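Side project, low priority. Logging it here so it doesn't get lost.
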Amino acid sequence: MDQSERDRYLGIIRSTPDRLKAALAGVPKKLLAWRPAPGKWSIHEILCHMRDAERDGYLYRYSRILAENNPTLPDVDGDKLALDRQYSRLNLREVLRDWRTARKQVLGIVKKVRPDQWQRIGTHEHLGPMSLETILQRQALGNDEAHLGQIENIKQRRQTLAKLEETPKVLASLLRGVPDEVLRRKPAPEKWSMLEIACHLRDVEQLFVERYAKMANHDRPALRMFNQDALAATLKYNQDDPAAVLRDFRGFRQETLALLSALAHQSWQWVGLHPKRGEVTIAGHADLHVNHDTNHLNQVRTLRERFGVG
């Protein structure tokens, strides 16, 4: 590893305190404790792990290798520590304080490492020989970059799921109190009524959850489409029962949320083949899903205003 590469990794670990502070700014307590999938750590637990990895892993390893010739480096079992130390019960303010203290100590140590010392080694009990520069690389990329990425992904994922969860409630509120005749009134012969938009949301939800399930369980599956206008005519959307439509839509959306909530982080990058868009990931499709909701909710709002519904 040349000096420019070491400098890049040193730059990462120096910038992490400020980047972490920015990543946590404004994050509510409920989101800090939210787990993105069964068995996955919350932001709170990730931060506890970062503290223990800093103190028991990186700080310990740098210190031992510089002080001794080829010391034995014990493993840091993150899952065991999370259980033994009951991460979810720890005071997060104290955790962050301890992490910052340990990082400051690490930065003080690595600042004084001479060029000829970066090749000094210790022997990890599972991974074998590790040099100081190998440890630096692992800290910068496998720890700092990885965990900051996890935190951002959890924030984004929760935002996506929250928006999807909210749509049935918003739709119900928009249709509440609208006279039946107005619900079925078309703004133009070729345009949908409020009820028809609701029916479309109900039926496309079944298509979307089908796509998520295929992407989650198959390798690059083909994703189907349907002719929405033909389906609206076949199922006679404008003659449907509004209450039943809302009930069914809520049920199908709950299936979607249950499926997405159970996916591991890496699963959100699994790919399906859309007939028009080509390759699309589960994460990308979820973004399309949110935009689809937003578009149709705005259509309903516009119709309410056009028809003078207060």
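Brief comment: The longest helix spans residues 132-175.
Revisit when time allows.
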